[in-house]
Amino acid sequence: MQDDLFGGQTDVPAPPPAAAKDASAAKTRTATSASEDSEPPRAKPPRRTGVHPAPGLDDLKPLAAALPAQLRLGTSSWSYPGWQGLLWEGAHSEATLAKQGLAVYAQHPLLRTVSIDRGFYRPLTVSEYERYASQVPEDFRFVVKAPSLVTD
């Protein structure tokens, strides 16, 4: 079980145990090598690296289009590993998501804003804001937490 984006629970099927995968692969190799009419083994597709959007996000576009233009839904971060399968595919560490997750987060049809809390501890530089802005669409917005120098 993991939390979904809206606070409920969602069942995420557990991956098959490694032993079951290995046994299945061995059976397939044996059956294939025994066949006289078998095709030559196919090369595996190249493994995708980095963070990629979860499949099925396009299904949410009609819902997003039905929301008022002034309404912006978002979260306090883009680096929560528990959103695997909901926001991005595959498991990623919080550190990886902190570096690569913003661009994928911003592709979610319902999420049009996110908070930047880092600035509370130390004001961000112009280049840091530019780097964030370069990863999101033009109409995406950030909620920036005021530095503690201002709020304390």
What is the strand and helix layout of this fold?
Layout: E1 2-3, E2 9-10, H1 18-34, E3 52-53, H2 61-66, E4 73-75, E5 88-89, H3 94-105, E6 111-116, H4 126-133, E7 141-144, H5 148-151
Parallel strand pairs: 4-6, 6-7
Antiparallel strand pairs: 1-2, 3-5
Describe this structure in words.
The chain is α/β, with parallel strands linked by helices and 152 residues long. It has a domain of 101 residues. Helices cover 31% and strands 14% of the residues. The strands form 3 sheets. The chain has a 3-stranded parallel β-sheet, with no helix packed on it. Strand 1 and strand 2 form a beta hairpin. The longest helix is centred in the N-terminal third of the chain and has 17 residues. The radius of gyration is 21 Å and the shape is globular. The mean pLDDT is 82.
